[in-house]
Design goal:
Blueprint (H helix, E strand, L loop, with lengths): L1 H19 L3 H31 L3 H23 L8 H26 L3 H15 L2 H7 L11
Helix pairs in contact: 2-3, 3-4, 4-5
Length: about 150
């Protein structure tokens, strides 16, 4: 009798867990929505950086770059926090690992900027750009175009 009760509880917990896990379609939809919500903010900072560069306004460029990095980092944290459906784990693990690696360099870039270490900042930005090269293709292949090529 006790074994049957434990089995029933275990099956109920598994069913609840499976019900709360999203399908690949729901996961993609949620992540694409997250990215779409950040795209206008990121694009605005890209325009602000271009305007500041054209005007040779280093201060405005620095502020726009900082906001761009913070918005991107915030978006990444929200993406990384979403549970990945089992069917997408193989595809998403390397993407999420790369995003976390990039996030670490974004943190370092922001620290270098706050310390007025222009050489350190430039080095981190170069590393970020290098690491991020394959990211759009990976996101697009995972069905996350709004996080990939639609955003950049």
């Amino acid at each position: 009798m006790r074994g049957a009760v434990l089995l029933t509880i275990l099956l109920s917990l598994l069913a609840a867990s499976a019900a709360s896990a999203s399908s690949p379609t729901q996961y993609r939809s949620k992540l694409n929505a997250i990215c779409r919500s950040y795209t206008p903010q990121l694009k605005a900072q890209e325009r602000a950086m271009a305007k500041a560069e054209k005007a040779k306004d280093g201060r405005a460029l620095g502020f726009a770059l900082g906001r761009f990095l913070v918005y991107g980092l915030t978006q990444d944290v929200r993406i990384e926090a979403q549970p990945v459906p089992a069917l997408l784990l193989t595809r998403m693990r390397p993407i999420l690992a790369l995003m976390r690696k990039i996030d670490g360099h974004v943190h370092l870039a922001l620290q270098r900027a706050l310390a007025s270490d222009n050489a350190g900042l430039a080095s981190q930005l170069k590393t970020i750009a290098t690491l991020a090269k394959p990211l759009n293709a990976g996101l697009d292949a995972a069905g996350l175009r709004d996080c990939g090529s639609n955003q950049s």
